C-alpha cells in the first residue's frame, strides 16, 4: 500500500507554487484541461462502463461532455485569483486564496465525469487535488486524471498538481481526508459522514430518494417522456434520478397508459414481490442492480421482460410504507408509482418519501405552474429538499444548466443540514476558495433633515398660514393644543386667521403636560371623524408630541408603539421600518415656548397611562412639514418656564455640538444657538414681554438648536435628565441645568474609560469641542482646561441669573429617597436612546456617580 504522505508531498509543493499564479495563467490551464477532458469523453466513457459494469456508454459520454464543457463555460470568466471584487467608495476589497490540497472522493456511479468536474474546480481555484476512487473505478479515474494533468502541465501548471490513489482502500481514503486541507466528498452516506468526522473541513453530499408529484394539470406526454428520459439515463445511476412517482388519482390512469405506450414494463403483483427481495438485501440497496438495465434486474428477480423494456414500473398500493423496498433510493431503472387521493395527499406522501432517505436532495413536480401557483407554493413549502424541480427530468435538471440556466452546473449536489451537509446548493468554485475581505475604514453617509419650510420672526404667523389657502390649498385643519392655551385665548390668532381664509377647523385641547396614549387615541378618533387635510400642533413640547402621535394614528391606525420605540444604534438601520407619513394630512408645528425645538425634530414621547410606560418615538417621517416660529406667541411665558425651557435649549445645542454624530452642517447651528442663549436667556427671564428682542432671540435659539440635535442627536445629559425627571417630577429643563456641568466635566476626559463607537469619531475630542464653545462665547482662557472651567463657570452664572438651584437636593429631593432609586435610574439612563451618541461611552457606575455628584453639587 502506498504511503499517503509520500503521495501528498509533491501535490502540496505544486499547490504552493500554483498559489502564486495569475488569473490569466490559471484560465489558460483551466481551458486546456477542459478541452482535453471533452476530447477524451468517448474512450473514458467506455472505460468507465467496462470497469464498473454500470450504466450505458452513450449516456456516460454525455456526462463526460457535460462535466467538461458546461463547467468550463459557466466559470471561464469567474475571478478566482487575487482581487476578485472591489468597491472603492465603500472601502471593500475581496481577495481569493486557494484552500491548498483537496481530497476528492469519487463515486463508482459517475467515476470519470465527477473526476473531470472536481479537477476543473481545483484548477480554476489554484488548488492541488488528490483523487480517491472506488476500487471498481480506479483505472478509469487514473486515466481521466492523467489526461487532464498532461494538458494542464503543458499549459503551464506546476508538475504534479493532480494526483490519485492507485490502490484504493478505506485506510487510504481516511488518510486523504485527514491529511489534505479539504475534502470534497461525493458518495454514500458513510463516506460523507467520515469526511465530516475527519477533523478537516469538508463538503459532502447526501443520498437522493427523489419523489415526483404528478398533478392533474400536468401535460401527460411531456411528463412521461421527461421521466423516462431521466430514469433511463445511464440506467438510473444519477443520485437525483426519479425514485417514486406520486400521481393524483384523477390523472393516474392516463399516466399509467402513457408509460405503457412508451415502453415501460408494468409489473404484476407477483413480479413486484420478487423485485422487493432483489432491490434490498439485508436492509440495504443491492449493489448488483445499480446501473443495470431493466431486463437484467428482472432476470435477477426471477421473471422475464423484453430487452426493450425501459423501466420496471411498480404500482404500490396504499400509503408510503417505510419498510417497503420501493420507498427507497434504487439507482436503477426501477420506479415506484403511488396513487394519491387529491393533491394535498400527494404532498404528504412525497414528504414521507423524502424523510425516508432523500432529505435535502431533490424533489420534483409536474404541474401547470401558471394556473396552479397555489399548489406549487404548497409543494415548495413542504419539501425538505434543496432542489425543487418543476416539469423537469430530475437526472438532467438537478445538475443544472440544462433545463434551467441559472442553476449552476455541478456533479456534487449539496443537501443542506437536512442531508447532513454543510452546503445546500450545487457545489462550484466558490466553495473551494478562501475569500479575504479587506475593509478600509469609511465614515457613514450622514444626513441633514429639516422641515420643508421654517417661518420665523415676529408676525410670521399670518404670512405662513396664508400658504394654507394660496399654495397648499388646504380646506380642513385639525388643531392640537392644551387646555391652558385654548382657555386663555392664546389660540385666537390662529383661529381668526383660519376663519378669515374660510378654512374649516376642529380643536382638540385635552393634551396633558405628559401626553398619554389615551389622549392621543381620543384625538385621533376626533381627527378621523373630522378628516383633516392639515394638522396644526400649537403649544409647547407636549402638544407637539401628542399631535405627532395623533397624526401617526390617523394615517396608520394599526401602529405598534412597542416596535416603533425599539432602541436603535443608527436611525437609518433600525429594525423597524417607519410607515410613510403625510399621505392624508400636512403637518404644521407652531411653538408657544422657546425650549423643546419639537417644531423641527423627528421626536415624540407618549406615555401608556395603563402601564406608565413611556414610548420615545424617533423617525424622520415624524418631522413636521412646516414650522412657524413667531415670538409674539411666546411673550408671556412664565419666568419658571422661561428658565427651564431656556436651559433645555442650551443643553440641546451643547450636546449636539459634542455628539459623535455632529457634522459641519450641525456645528454652525449648535454654536449659534449657544451664543443666542447666553445672549438672550437672562434678559428674557428678567424682562419677559418687555424685551421682545430677547424673546425673539430665544425663539430662534430654540428652533436652531432643534435643527442641530434633530440631526446630530444628543448625549447623556438628556439620558440622565429623562430618568431623573421621571423619578422626581422635576421639570426636564431644570434637570438639564443641574446635570449639564457634570456631563461636560465627564466628557472632557481625553483618556475616557470607553470612547463611543462611530466611524467618523476618530478619537476622544469632546474637550476640544467644549473649548471651542468657550471661544465662541469669548470667555477667554489660555489652555483647554481653562476654557472648559470658564464654560462651566458661565453655566453656573446663568443658573444664578435664572434662579435655578444647582443641586438635586436643593430642589427638595430627600437623599434617602434618592438613593433608593439611584441604581435603577442609572441603569435606565444607560439604556436611554440618547446615550448612544454621547462622545464618551459611559459605564453604568459612571452614570451613577454623575447622579451622586449632581445631588450634592460636587
Summarize the structure.
With 858 residues, this protein is of the alpha/beta class. 46% of the residues lie in helices and 15% in strands.
Can you describe what's shown?
- The chain is an alpha/beta fold and 858 residues long.
- The chain has four domains: 4-205, Aldehyde Dehydrogenase, Chain A, domain 1, CATH 3.40.605.10; 210-393, Aldehyde Dehydrogenase, Chain A, domain 2 (3-Layer(aba) Sandwich), CATH 3.40.309; 450-634, 3-Layer(aba) Sandwich (Rossmann fold), CATH 3.40.50.1970; 638-858, Up-down Bundle (Dehydroquinate synthase-like, alpha domain), CATH 1.20.1090.
- The chain is built from 30 helices and 25 strands.
- The strands form six sheets. A seven-stranded parallel β-sheet has the order 10-13-14-9-8-15-16, sandwiched between helices. It has a six-stranded parallel β-sheet with strand order 18-25-22-21-19-20, sandwiched between helices. A five-stranded parallel β-sheet has the order 5-4-3-6-7, sandwiched between helices.
- The protein starts with a helix and ends with a helix.
- The model has no long low-confidence stretch (mean pLDDT 93).
Amino acid at each position: 500500500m502506498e504511503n499517503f504522505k509520500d503521495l501528498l508531498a509533491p501535490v502540496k509543493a505544486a499547490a504552493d507554487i500554483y498559489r502564486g499564479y495569475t488569473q490569466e495563467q490559471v484560465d489558460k490551464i483551466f481551458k486546456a484541461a477542459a478541452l482535453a477532458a471533452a476530447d477524451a469523453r468517448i474512450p473514458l466513457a467506455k472505460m468507465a462502463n467496462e470497469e464498473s459494469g454500470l450504466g450505458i456508454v452513450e449516456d456516460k459520454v454525455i456526462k463526460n461532455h457535460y462535466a467538461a464543457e458546461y463547467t468550463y463555460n459557466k466559470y471561464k470568466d469567474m475571478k478566482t485569483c487575487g482581487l476578485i471584487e472591489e468597491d472603492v467608495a465603500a472601502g471593500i476589497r475581496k481577495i481569493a486564496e486557494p484552500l491548498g490540497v483537496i481530497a476528492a472522493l469519487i463515486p463508482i456511479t459517475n467515476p470519470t465525469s465527477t473526476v473531470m468536474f472536481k479537477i476543473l474546480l481545483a484548477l480554476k481555484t489554484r488548488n492541488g487535488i488528490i483523487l480517491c476512487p472506488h476500487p471498481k473505478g480506479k483505472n478509469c479515474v487514473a486515466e481521466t486524471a492523467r489526461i487532464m494533468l498532461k494538458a494542464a502541465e503543458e499549459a503551464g501548471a506546476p508538475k504534479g498538481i493532480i494526483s490519485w490513489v492507485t490502490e484504493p482502500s478505506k485506510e487510504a481514503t481516511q488518510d486523504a481526508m485527514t491529511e489534505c486541507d479539504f475534502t470534497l466528498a461525493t458518495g454514500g452516506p458513510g463516506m460523507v459522514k467520515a469526511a465530516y468526522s475527519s477533523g478537516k473541513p469538508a463538503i459532502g453530499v447526501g443520498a437522493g430518494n427523489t419523489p415526483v408529484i404528478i398533478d392533474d394539470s400536468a401535460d401527460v406526454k411531456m411528463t412521461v417522456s421527461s421521466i423516462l428520459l431521466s430514469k433511463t439515463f445511464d440506467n438510473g445511476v444519477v443520485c437525483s434520478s426519479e425514485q417514486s412517482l406520486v400521481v393524483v388519482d384523477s390523472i393516474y390512469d392516463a399516466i399509467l397508459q402513457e408509460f405503457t405506450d412508451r415502453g415501460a414494463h408494468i409489473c404484476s403483483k407477483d413480479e413486484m414481490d420478487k423485485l422487493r427481495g432483489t432491490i434490498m438485501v439485508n436492509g440495504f440497496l443491492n449493489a448488483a442492480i445499480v446501473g443495470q438495465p431493466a431486463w437484467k434486474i428482472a432476470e435477477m428477480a426471477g421473471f422475464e421482460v423484453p430487452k426493450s423494456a425501459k423501466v420496471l414500473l411498480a404500482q404500490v398500493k396504499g400509503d408510503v410504507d417505510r419498510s417497503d423496498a420501493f420507498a427507497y433510493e434504487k439507482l436503477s431503472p426501477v420506479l415506484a408509482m403511488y396513487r394519491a387521493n387529491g393533491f394535498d395527499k400527494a404532498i404528504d406522501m412525497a414528504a414521507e418519501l423524502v424523510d425516508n432517505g432523500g432529505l435535502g436532495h431533490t424533489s420534483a413536480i409536474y404541474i401547470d405552474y401558471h394556473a396552479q401557483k397555489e399548489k406549487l407554493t404548497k409543494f415548495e413549502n413542504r419539501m425538505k429538499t434543496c432542489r425543487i424541480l418543476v416539469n423537469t427530468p430530475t437526472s438532467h435538471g438537478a445538475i443544472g444548466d440544462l433545463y434551467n440556466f441559472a442553476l449552476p452546473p455541478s456533479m456534487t449536489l449539496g443537501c443542506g443540514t437536512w442531508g447532513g451537509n454543510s452546503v445546500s446548493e450545487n457545489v462550484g468554485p466558490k466553495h473551494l476558495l478562501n475569500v479575504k475581505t479587506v475593509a478600509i475604514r469609511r465614515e457613514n453617509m450622514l444626513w441633514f433633515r429639516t422641515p420643508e419650510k421654517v417661518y420665523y420672526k415676529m408676525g410670521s404667523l399670518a404670512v405662513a398660514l396664508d400658504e394654507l389657502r394660496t399654495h397648499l390649498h388646504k380646506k380642513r385643519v385639525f388643531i392640537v393644543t392644551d387646555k391652558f392655551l385654548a382657555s386663555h385665548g392664546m389660540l385666537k390668532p390662529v383661529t381668526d386667521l383660519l376663519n378669515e381664509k374660510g378654512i374649516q377647523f376642529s380643536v382638540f385641547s385635552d393634551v396633558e403636560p405628559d401626553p398619554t396614549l389615551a389622549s392621543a387615541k381620543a384625538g385621533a378618533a376626533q381627527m378621523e371623524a373630522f378628516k383633516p387635510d392639515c394638522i396644526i400642533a400649537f403649544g409647547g413640547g407636549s402638544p407637539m408630541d401628542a399631535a405627532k402621535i395623533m397624526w401617526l394614528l390617523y394615517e396608520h391606525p394599526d401602529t405598534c408603539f412597542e416596535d416603533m420605540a425599539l432602541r436603535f444604534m443608527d436611525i437609518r438601520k433600525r429594525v423597524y421600518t417607519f410607515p410613510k407619513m403625510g399621505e392624508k394630512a400636512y403637518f404644521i408645528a407652531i411653538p408657544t415656548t422657546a425650549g423643546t425645538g419639537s417644531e423641527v425634530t423627528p421626536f415624540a414621547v407618549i406615555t401608556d397611562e395603563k402601564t406608565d410606560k413611556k414610548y420615545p418615538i424617533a423617525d424622520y417621517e415624524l418631522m413636521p412639514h412646516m414650522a412657524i416660529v413667531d415670538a409674539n406667541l411666546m411673550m408671556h411665558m412664565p419666568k419658571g418656564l422661561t428658565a427651564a425651557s431656556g436651559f433645555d435649549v442650551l443643553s440641546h445645542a451643547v450636546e449636539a455640538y459634542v455628539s459623535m454624530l455632529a457634522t459641519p452642517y450641525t456645528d454652525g447651528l449648535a454654536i449659534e444657538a449657544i451664543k443666542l442663549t447666553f445672549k438672550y436667556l437672562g434678559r428674557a427671564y428678567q424682562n419677559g414681554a418687555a424685551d421682545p428682542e430677547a424673546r425673539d432671540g430665544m425663539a430662534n435659539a430654540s428652533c436652531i438648536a432643534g435643527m442641530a440635535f434633530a440631526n446630530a442627536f444628543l448625549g447623556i445629559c438628556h439620558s440622565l435628565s429623562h430618568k431623573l425627571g421621571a423619578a422626581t417630577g422635576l421639570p426636564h429643563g431644570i434637570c438639564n441645568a443641574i446635570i449639564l456641568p457634570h456631563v461636560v466635566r465627564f466628557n472632557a476626559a481625553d483618556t475616557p474609560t470607553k470612547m463611543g463607537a462611530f466611524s467618523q469619531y476618530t478619537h476622544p475630542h469632546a474637550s476640544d469641542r467644549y473649548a471651542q464653545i468657550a471661544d465662541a462665547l469669548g470667555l477667554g482662557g489660555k489652555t483647554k482646561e481653562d476654557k472648559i472651567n470658564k464654560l462651566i463657570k458661565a453655566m453656573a452664572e446663568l443658573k444664578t441669573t435664572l434662579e435655578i438651584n444647582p443641586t438635586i437636593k436643593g430642589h427638595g429631593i430627600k437623599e434617602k429617597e434618592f438613593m433608593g432609586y439611584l441604581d435603577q435610574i442609572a441603569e435606565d439612563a444607560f439604556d436611554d436612546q440618547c446615550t448612544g451618541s454621547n462622545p464618551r461611552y459611559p459605564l453604568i457606575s459612571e452614570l451613577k456617580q454623575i447622579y451622586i455628584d449632581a445631588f450634592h453639587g460636587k
